């Protein structure tokens, strides 16, 4: 993973023109009646929820690795874009087509891209990168840093110098395990 980090392009970030609506999200790409949010919830459930009409989910249980806790029922969960939409915009997605931004916002092709976490932890994170926010659960930080680098690599996004330093510091205390990344673009 350290080698992958070393190959990410370093560039200044620019939020000019960012609007969350530039990333159409929670679509039903496979037209099965369940949008991206529901697909992630179904895939990550520790105890499967019941699925009703129009993919309404009820019951079930999930593990939120950001804050190391279990959540009963889907209403206490947010689906986090591991690399937030605003951060993606800052790091290169501003130059993408609307279709590429939609694909990013609904990426079910890599389990690291979207993650079910407690609403409180997701809102605490907001649109921050690792230089200003890391998961409160210290035991998950190596995985978080690794997944962040993999997601940025998958989508050809850059990192800024502070983000690079924080990720390098985080990885210094982690096992240097091999990671596979399938490029999305």
Automatic annotation (TrEMBL):
Cited InterPro entries: GmrSD_C
Domain GmrSD restriction endonucleases C-terminal: 58-165
Entry superkingdom: Bacteria
Stated name of the protein: GmrSD restriction endonucleases C-terminal domain-containing protein
Species, as recorded: Streptomyces longwoodensis
């Amino acid at each position: 993973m350290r080698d992958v980090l070393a190959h990410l392009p370093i560039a200044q970030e620019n939020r000019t023109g960012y609007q969350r609506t530039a990333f159409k999200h929670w679509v039903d790409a496979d037209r099965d009646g369940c949008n991206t949010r529901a697909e992630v919830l179904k895939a990550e459930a520790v105890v499967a929820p019941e699925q009703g009409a129009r993919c309404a989910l009820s019951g079930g249980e999930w593990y939120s690795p950001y804050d190391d806790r279990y959540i009963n029922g889907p209403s206490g969960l947010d689906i986090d874009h591991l690399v937030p939409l605003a951060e993606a915009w800052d790091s290169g997605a501003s130059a993408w087509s609307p279709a590429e931004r939609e694909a990013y916002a609904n990426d079910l092709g890599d389990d690291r891209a979207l993650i079910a976490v407690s609403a409180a932890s997701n809102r605490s994170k907001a649109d921050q990168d690792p230089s200003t926010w890391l998961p409160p659960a210290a035991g998950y930080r190596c995985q978080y840093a690794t997944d962040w680098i993999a997601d940025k690599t998958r989508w050809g996004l850059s990192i800024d110098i502070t983000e690079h330093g924080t990720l390098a510091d985080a990885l210094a205390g982690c096992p240097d395990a091999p990671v596979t990344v399938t490029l999305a673009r």
